[in-house]
Design goal:
alpha+beta, 3 domains, 20 helices
């Protein structure tokens, strides 16, 4: 009679399993969440497991109310903080902010209450960092006086720069085919050189780092896009035109940005759309197709595709007309843009698709070679009788005790003499020679459980050793072969030492070595490193979860499959 388990026992067991699964997934969730963040999000004082959701704004410039927050020092009494300290600090900082705003008007009208409140929160963070500890325990008049003296215009200016979001255009640089660089906007007033050609927008001048930029105030309430344009006389012939670099100030609205270039009767459009993602100046380069596209170097530019030819695109000899189109993003589109931003940068800066293709080839070649060669050797050890069989099997198992560091140099010398250095051959050819002693052992133990009656029946039907192996033994070893395939895939996909020793050509890099090369020089770009790491680990996780049933069956298999 089968005893029925109590309900609390089942709930407790499932709770433990679910908790263990969540604990196992936490590092991967953190890895995935970091790959979706902006650099400023991981540099903030507060830790967040998940990234901030993008908030597309219909009107810009605007004040980002998520920039600052008021947090009391940990040693401040909670009752005093709620009773008078917070109110006193906001009052004194507010007076200084009001005086600063009077002398520093913004180019465009923004919500005054929101701007004032955000500046108070931002200045409070700076004041809190400079006030002595004893200030927080003194009387209210002394506290107000200390805060009043601590507030400086520099603090307000810094807070304003951090929370005020605006879209602007700065320099427009041209690079010719001889790599000479020309500033097309030199000595031009922004409000005179740029003009609005479509949509609801307005252009005003702002001085940033002692240079004038064109701040664009726009409103998407009446349309879903706006366009601004400018016209430049090229210092070189249009046939020498190579690349156009435009300096943008992004406003973190995640709206799409497209560039169109009209020159010599041709209309070019940027192949991929960029987004107003962060809140800093960013230089985007747009280049005509050419030999640079075939190189493995980082492609830090967007290609310009010719889409039309017509006389209306001819504005005179060597005259270039530049059009910048900003289209409104919905919330789903902004979420998709932010989620894929860092991954696009990874594939733009390094040929990661080529690395993944190389790793996929090595994984398939090693899996096929290991399963075929090791299963043949295991069949010979398990089902055939020949002199010295057990001694040879002991010698095969003995190779498991040899550290790979011992055979590293002799193997390198042999492969170099064969002419295989700086090729992929040392990374997949040995797998076809039954060098995996663990796979031979696992398959041999599984084959030993097969009944002899199956072989006798195959022999009566006229099968030889190879046909018996192919039609009888191999189909019954599918779970074990699946387990070996998972082991081999995980080893080959994550192998770093082998490619590092034998490969010196970037075109032959697998994913592990490509990830290492990508990380070099990007120690502070954590979001890009996390995005590349997700790309690297995702196939391993998917293979393991999709094949875990066969994986467990293959390891546990000791007899014939029922």
């Amino acid at each position: 009679m089968k005893l029925r388990q109590p309900l609390w026992h089942k709930l407790g067991l499932h709770g433990i399993l679910l908790g263990g699964s969540l604990l196992f997934l936490t590092p991967y969730v953190w890895l995935l969440g970091t790959s979706w963040k902006l650099d400023k999000e991981i540099q903030s004082e507060e830790f967040h497991l998940l990234p901030q959701a993008p908030m597309p704004r219909a009107v810009s410039p605007y004040v980002d109310e998520r920039t600052f927050s008021i947090r009391p020092p940990e040693y401040v009494d909670a009752d005093a903080w709620t009773t008078w300290i917070r109110t006193a600090a906001e009052d004194e900082i507010g007076r200084a902010v009001d005086a600063w705003l009077t002398g520093h008007p913004t180019e465009f009208v923004v919500q005054a209450d929101r701007l004032r409140g955000e500046l108070i929160e931002g200045v409070f963070g700076n004041v809190r960092a400079v006030l002595p500890v004893e200030t927080w325990t003194t009387t209210e008049p002394v506290f107000r006086s200390t805060v009043r003296n601590a507030v400086a215009d520099r603090m307000i200016s810094e807070a304003f720069d951090q929370c005020y979001r605006y879209f602007a255009l700065g320099k427009v640089l041209l690079k010719d085919r001889n790599y000479h660089i020309y500033d097309l906007t030199d000595k031009q007033h922004p409000e005179e050189s740029w003009r609005v050609t479509d949509g609801t927008a307005e252009i005003k001048t702002r001085v940033v780092s002692r240079r004038e930029v064109a701040v664009v105030g726009y409103d998407f309430s009446g349309s879903d896009a706006f366009e601004i344009a400018s016209q430049f006389k090229l210092p070189v012939g249009w046939e020498d035109f190579k690349r156009l670099s435009i300096s943008f100030r992004r406003d973190q609205t995640w709206h799409g940005l497209t560039v169109l270039v009209e020159i010599n009767g041709r209309l070019y459009r940027s192949r991929s759309e960029k987004y107003l993602s962060e809140d800093n100046f960013w230089e985007a380069s747009f280049q005509l197709p050419g030999p640079d596209d075939q190189r493995l170097a980082a492609k830090l530019y967007v290609l310009l595709d010719e889409i039309e030819r017509a006389p209306r695109y001819d504005h005179g000899l060597d005259v270039l007309r530049l059009r910048v189109v900003v289209s409104r993003s919905s919330t789903p589109r902004a979420l998709w843009a932010k989620g894929t931003e860092n991954y696009k940068k990874v594939f733009e800066e390094v040929p990661f698709w080529r690395y993944l293709a190389t790793s996929a080839f090595l994984a398939i070649a090693n899996i096929a070679g290991t399963c075929l060669s090791c299963s043949l050797a295991a069949y010979a050890f398990a089902r055939l009788r020949w002199p010295g069989r057990d001694l040879c099997f002991v010698l095969v198992l003995a190779t498991l005790m040899i550290p790979p560091q011992v055979t590293m140099i002799p193997s390198f010398v042999i492969y170099r003499q064969l002419g295989w250095y700086n090729t992929l051959s040392p990374l997949w050819v040995p797998s076809w020679l039954a060098v995996n002693a663990f796979a031979i052992f696992l398959l041999r133990q599984a084959m030993r459980g097969l009944p002899r009656d199956l072989e006798d029946a195959a022999t009566i039907d006229g099968c030889g050793y190879l046909r018996t192996y192919w039609h009888i033994a191999l189909p019954l070893m599918r779970p074990t072969l699946a387990a070996i395939s998972v082991f081999t895939f995980m080893y080959v996909w994550n192998d770093f030492m082998g490619p590092l020793i034998y490969v010196n050509d970037q075109r032959l890099y697998p994913a592990a070595l490509g990830l290492f090369g990508f990380m070099a020089g990007r120690e502070n770009q954590f979001t890009l490193i996390m995005a590349a790491s997700v790309i690297m680990t995702l196939p391993v996780v998917m293979v393991f979860f999709l094949l875990q049933r066969y994986f467990i069956q293959g390891v546990a298999l000791t007899g014939m499959k029922g």
